[in-house]
Amino acid sequence: MQDEDGYVTLNIKAQKPALTSVEPASSPLWRVMALTLLVLCVGMVVGLVALGLMSVMQQNYLQAENENLSGTLKLLVKKVCQDLIQLSGQKESHKCNPCDTNWRYYGDSCYGFFKHNLTWEESKKYCIDVNATLVKITSKSILQYLNNRTGLIRWIGLSRQKSSDVWRWEDGSVLSKAELQLSGTGTENMNCAYFHNGKIHPTFCENRHYLMCERKAGIVKVEQLL
Question: Where in the cell is it found (predicted)?
């Protein structure tokens, strides 16, 4: 640039040095704090998972205990009801009785004893018509109960298709020889069984005898005992 005297003036601006950003070195204290926070977070997650598992285990335990107590209470109520029925006599049964009139309550079942001279097949149909089945004897206690209840020959729900087959109950289960045995093997074509004097006997299905039916008893409620 030229001034009034003819001199040239140079306009030179001083250039500022470029600033470079330098990241400060990480402090050891911050590293320790970050690591501590990470450990705390992991610990909290592990703790929450552990609490969740403990809660599930506690719920399962309480549910199992509740089921055990409920089962024990049902058994106790059933036993008390059966004792009350026995004390009240046969003509005037206790109100806790879950069975219909003229049916007898024992174990988990109601038993009906009928004086109809029928064949085995006719007896089976008769029980079905009253929403029951021919009696199934699964234990010596039931055998003893039936022996105390009746001294007559009565059909039970035990049969076989032919003499070479195994004996089966109406529900298809096989007669357990460990618990019960037939009195005698029976001759050819004796494929149905009756109960008499505490024993199970094979006989011809076309014979006519009295019968006894069985159906599941209802639930006895605590308030019915009062």
Answer: Membrane
Element (H, E) at 58: helix 28-88
C-alpha 130/C-alpha 19 separation (Å) is: 104
pLDDT (tens digit per residue) in 172-213: 999 987 777 788 766 788 999 999 999 999 999 999 999 999
DSSP assignment of 133-198 = EE----SHHHHHHHHHH--S-EEEEEE-SSTTSPPEETTSPBP-TTT--BSS---TT--EEEEETT
Q: 8 is written with which tokens?
A: 């040239």
pLDDT at 117: 97
Non-local (6+) Cβ contacts of 109 within 8 A are 214, 215, 216, 217
**pLDDT for position 65:** 61
The CATH number of 103-218, from 3.40.50.300, 3.10.100.10, 3.30.70.360, 3.10.580.10, is 3.10.100.10
**Residues with Cβ < 8 Å from 153, sequence gap 6 or more?**
194, 195, 196, 209, 210
- The most confident of the ranges 72-76, 100-104, 179-183 is 100-104
38 CB burial (10 A radius; 0-12, 13-18, 19+)? exposed
Is residue 10 over pLDDT 80?
no
Task: Report the alpha-carbon distance of residue 1 to residue 32 in Å, rounded.
Answer: 63
With contact defined as beta carbons under 8 Å apart, do 194 and 154 qualify? yes
From the number of C-beta atoms within 10 Å of its C-beta (0-12, 13-18, 19+), residue 8 rates as exposed
